Amino acid sequence: MLIAWAITYSAIVGGVKAGIERAAKIMMPILFIMVLILIGRTIFLPGALDGVNYLFQPDFSKIMDLKVWAAAYGQIFFTLSIGFAIMLAYSSYLPEKSDINNNAFMTVLINCGFSILAGIMIFAVLGFMAHEQSKELTDVVSAGVGLAFVTLPAAINELPAPYILGPLLFLSLTIAGLSSHISIIEAVTSAIIDKFKIARKKAATLVCGIGALVSLAFATNGGLLLLDLVDYFTNQIGIVLACFIEVILVVMVVKAANIRSYVNNVSDFKIGGWYDICLKFISPAILAITLFNTLKTTVTEGYGGYAQSDLLTLGWGLLALLVVIGVLINTFSKKEA
User: Where, per UniProt, does this protein localize (predicted)?
Assistant: First the structure.
């Protein structure tokens, strides 16, 4: 954990060009190569193709299941870091006349393409595991963080040469986690710099120092429980709510047509009126329905079999704390100004 924070701190202090961009140029190719190696080794195992087929075979009976849509939105929020202010932080360093439409489409396509590659690797492993245990694939998989830290390691142990594939898997997870970690901390650090007008090194030291202390809780015996609850309440509820409010404010204050006009003026290919419809109606509607269903399910049924006391303190309490911190930061930054 200390090594991860040290790497993150070095990248953040170095800034976007000298730190974050350099780290990304090293980590992303390594991650891509390792995932390809894992796919090449696992795809030919007995039952692996059954797992891959399960991944790509649609089940249209689930198309109206709101839980599926909530999970899908939570996934894309996480992989694209929508609602984390990461895109705002990074885009602020782009040239004024950058091709926004092209950058946006390339970001989404590359992100989704890599997600599919990772999915092929994971379901190939799960298919092999189900074949070896003579079980259905749904019987060997677990949801949430248990997939990465329990199910996949157990499956790797059953593979040929686990002493090679095991380290490859966890190194891949480590690099993926580090890249996301650096991005999230950069977003917070940039916000602190903009709000309080302090030097980057001082802001990075403050954010990384507090973050390192708080993250010690995840290294305790109850760390996995805490991680699962923080992940669920942050991504499935907090981020969805924040993005819903953001979309409404953007439509009401900035106006969808104004945004479309600006990005089209600086881009080679243009986006049409469908963008306005998505921003005004489709996105808010889906977000509202998804959020309502998630809140209803969480309140009435709970989550993950955890005790209500855990949900109240580590889940709802966390969301309330984040709101309070945001209000305090905004209040003190105005006083400083």
Answer: Membrane
Averaged pLDDT, 123-136: 85
- Which residues, in sequence order, are CB contacts of 164 under 8 Å at separation 6+? none
Contact of 159 with 45, CB cutoff 8 Å = yes
Contact 240, 73 (CB under 8 A): yes
Domain boundaries, the chain: 1-219, 221-337
Q: What is the largest CA-CA distance in the chain?
A: 65
Q: What is the dihedral of CA 93, 332, 198, 210, to 10 degrees?
A: -90
* Distances 37 to 33, 130, 185, 327 between C-alpha atoms, Å: 6, 21, 30, 46
What's the predicted TM-score (pTM) here?
0.78
How large is the C-alpha radius of gyration of the chain? 21
pLDDT at residue number 334: 60
Q: How many CB atoms are located within 10 Å of the residue 67 CB?
A: 13
User: How does residue 286 score in pLDDT terms, banded at 50, 70 and 90?
Assistant: confident
Which is nearest to 195 in space by CA: 325, 29, 79? 325
- Residue pLDDT, tens place only, 48-79: 899 999 989 988 888 888 778 767 776 777 78
Place of tokens 């390792």: 34
Q: What angle do CA 151, 83, 60 make, to 5 degrees?
A: 55
Confidence class of residue 9 from pLDDT cuts 50, 70 and 90?
A: very high
**Structure tokens, 233:** 């309440």
Q: Which residue has the tokens 């917070």?
A: 188
How much is the average pLDDT of 310-332? 86
